[in-house]
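Priority: medium. Attachment 1 of 2:
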């Protein structure tokens, strides 16, 4: 269920824009305090070697549950965009 996910990653809270921390397997997020909420989450994730696909999966898992397909980093491309499955037409 958590294959390929880091223990935690950073993201931005959509309404406030403040940096938050997402923890693997935990619903929701944790706020950062004491000035840390102003840190750049993208830079912090890069320093930790966390990919955009992993961040997208962590965000999805924290909001919709850790058993949904979106909680798997393999569901995303290198830019953190969900991979759409295109059905190929059968040739006649």
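Attachment 2 of 2:
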């Amino acid at each position: 269920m958590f294959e390929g996910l880091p223990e935690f990653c950073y993201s931005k809270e959509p309404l406030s824009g403040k940096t938050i921390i997402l923890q693997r397997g935990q619903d929701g997020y944790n706020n950062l305090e004491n000035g840390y909420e102003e840190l750049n989450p993208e830079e912090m994730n890069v320093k930790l070697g966390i990919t955009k696909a992993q961040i997208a999966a962590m965000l999805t898992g924290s909001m919709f549950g850790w058993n949904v397909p979106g909680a798997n980093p393999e569901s995303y491309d290198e830019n953190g965009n969900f991979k759409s499955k295109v059905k190929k037409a059968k040739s006649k």
